[in-house]
Amino acid sequence: MREYLDFEKPLKDLEGRIAKIVKSKSKKVSVQDAITKSTEQLATLEQEIFANLTPWQRAQIARHPQRPSISDYLEELTENVLELHGDRLYGEDRAIIGGFATWNNHSIMVMGHEKGKSLKERMRRNFGMAKPEGYRKALRLMKLAEKFQRPILTFIDTPGAYPGIDAEQRGQAEAIARNLLEMVKLKVPIIAVVTGEGGSGGALALGVADRVLMLEHAIYSVISPEGCAAILWGDASKSSTAAAALRMTAPELLKLHIIDDIILEPLGGAHRDLSLTAKNVSNTLDTHFKQLGKIPLPTLLKQREAKFRSHGSFSSLQAGTNTVKTANS
Hints:
By secondary structure, the protein is an alpha/beta fold. It folds into two domains: 6-52; 59-309, 2-enoyl-CoA Hydratase, Chain A, domain 1 (Alpha-Beta Complex). 47% of the residues lie in helices and 18% in strands. It is built from 14 helices and ten strands. It has helices at residues 9-23, 29-51, 55-62, 70-77, 119-124, 132-147, 165-169, 172-185, 200-204, 225-233, 239-246, 250-255, 274-293, 297-309, and strands at residues 78-83, 96-103, 106-113, 152-158, 190-199, 211-215, 219-221, 261-263, 314-317, 324-327. The strands form two sheets. Strands 1, 2, 3, 4, 5, 6, 7 and 8 form an eight-stranded mixed beta sheet that branches. β5, α9 (200-204) and β6 form a beta-alpha-beta unit. α4 (70-77) crosses α13.
C-alpha cells in the first residue's frame, strides 16, 4: 500500500474518487468521461505539487518510509554481493551494510546506511544510526577495497550517528574523525550517493569522496530541521523555516559546490518507481566512474583533498591589526 505524505492529501483524495468510479464498472459514456477527466486532473495536480516543493516537503520525501534503501539498490544494480560483517574490534553494526559486489561487470566495494522497512527491522538496524563499530566496519571495508584496488561506492541515508552513551563510550567522535582522515588518503576512486537523509557527521563519515551525488529529493545537512529549530527558536514546529535556512536540498547544494551532480527521480519520489530510480543512479555512476578512471592517482588524491578544503567560509583577524581576511567557497 502506498503511503501518502501530508502535502499529498489532495492526490490521495482524487485517486480515491477515481478508484470508486472505476470500481463501479459502469460502461456509461458519462462515467468513462469522468474517469478520463479525473485522471487528467490528477496528472496536472501531481505536476503542480512536485514542481513547487518547499525544502521541508523535500525533507519529508527524503524520509518517506517506503523510500528505497541500500538493500534495494544492491538488488537492482549489483550481482554477486558478498556482505562482510564486523569491525574486528568490538562487534557488528547492522545500521551499515557493505561488501564486494559486481556492478556493470565491474568489481566494486559498496557500503551504506540501512534503515530497514518494518518496525522490527528498523529497530534491528537502529533506524540507520550507526555506532562506532559501524563506521569502523566501513573503514575496514574501505581498506580492503584499497588493498585489492576496487573502486568504492557509498550510499548515505541516516538521520545522523547514534548519540547514545554506549556509542560515546566506545569513541563515536573518534570513529567518524578517523574515517574522514583515512578517506582523504584512500588510493582508489570513491563515489558517495546521498539517497535519503544525509545527517551530520553520521553521513560525512561515508561522504569524503571524489564525487558526491544526490538524489533529486534527498537532503544533506549538518543538522536536522527539527534540531536546528529547537536550537535557534526553542520550537521544533518551525522546522519548515529551518529547512529553508539550512539550504539542504540538492539544487541548493549543487549551487554551493558541496555536491557534484543530481540524480533525477520519478515524479513523486524514488519510492514511486524503484527500477527507474536505480537506472538513473547506475547511468550517473557510470559517467562519473569513467571520468575518475581517467585521472592519474596522484592528481585524484590532490583533487579530493582540495575539494573538501574549499568548502565553507572563514575569517581571520591578524593580531595587533584591524585587518580581516575572508575566504568563501
